[in-house]
Amino acid sequence: MVDTSDEWIVSRTGIKERHICAKNEATSDMAVAAGQEAMEMAGVKPEEIDFLITGTVTPDYRCPSASCIIQQKLGLINAGVMDLVAACAGFLHGLATADAFIKINKYKKIMVIGVEKLSSITDYTDRNTCVLFGDGAGAAIIEPTEDDSGILATFLKSDGRHAELLWIPDGGSAAPIQDLANPKKSIYLKMNGKEVFKHAVREMSNASLRVLDEAGVKKEDLKLMVVHQANIRIIDATAKRLGIPKEKVFLNIARYGNTSAASVPIALDEAVRKGRIEKGDLVLMAAFGGGLTWAAALIKW
Q: Which structural domains are found in the chain, ordered by start?
């Protein structure tokens, strides 16, 4: 499709394969599958969920929200819902929001989903982006705890001054589809990779240090770092800047590529299933995405 090679892609990104939805699959279909597995793992029934938060930039429709469609498909009959648009940091924004709702006793059981069908907004003739992105979903159930486990600290930040480094310039109200000369070419994701790299490493590192400091946790006490799987060089540079050894950094980018808001929950789920995370372990999560937005969270499993 473009002038590249397997060697070029793997050496510069760490990506060896990606998963792409079938044409008849939507964002909500992946979210439903992830949500069902999360409820099964948590031993929670659909009617017990009283709020749903979905982080995504690729909803089924412009309106209604992805969460409304997911709610209907999952049978979350007692839940309020909302979407969060924070790109690759979407899941962690949802996690922080759920944490706040739980702490003020607003809701008891909250489902947080990070899900993207990035193939629907990827230009497969653009070498800067088409080798990076995949589709996927991950979900978690958040509820109050009686012990010292759970979400210890979260941090959210953004800088809209750099929105044009990673964005979809056309198709919104500022540049409606009906006014575009060639809508099929201009409603895809655009990225300045070099600039995004610099911002991502710096801000994910700063956010990580912020939550560690807030929780009074030393980086040496971390069991695992689950960072947004955007690019192997970004992950390596962030870990090096934080002084976290490679053996404590979870990687699955080779199999999935960059799945945006789904990246952190997919990696977290795999780490748990593989026995990399056990009860009592301290886990640091960080993500960076378009907006620009970034986030970090520290949890005790």
A: 6-148 (3.40.47.10), 151-300 (3.40.47.10)
